[in-house]
Design brief:
Layout lengths: L4 E8 L2 E3 L4 E3 L6 E6 L4 E5 L9 E4 L4 E5 L4 E9 L14 E4 L1
Parallel strand pairs: 1-4, 3-9
Antiparallel strand pairs: 1-2, 4-7, 5-6, 5-8, 8-9
Bound molecules: zinc ion.
Amino acid sequence: MAKNKTVKFKFVGGKCKAPLRVIHLGKKGNMIDLQAVNTDVVLKFSARSPFDTKQVSISDGDTRTKEVENHGIFAYSLSCTKCKRRGPKSATPPQFIVP
Ligand SMILES: [Zn+2]
C-alpha cells in the first residue's frame, strides 16, 4: 500500500494557506491526509468535490483522511478561526487536481 499523501493547512503570515495553490491528489482511490497545523480550518468546494463531501472541517492538530472519489479540477475556499476578517476572495482560488 502506498503511503497516504499528506496536505497540511497552516496559518502563516496572517492567513491560512495550503502548501501550494494547486495540489495534485493523484489517482482516484488514493487516501489523502488533510491536516490542520495551527488553526481550525474549513475547506469548502464551490462546485464539485474530489471527496464524498463538499465541505471538510479540520480541528487544530487533527487529520481528516479522505478518499479521492472524483476526477477533475476542484476549486475551494479555505477559512479558519484565526483569520479575523474575510479578505477579498482571491481571483485564483486554491485547487485540487485529480487527473
Ligand atoms: Zn484562515
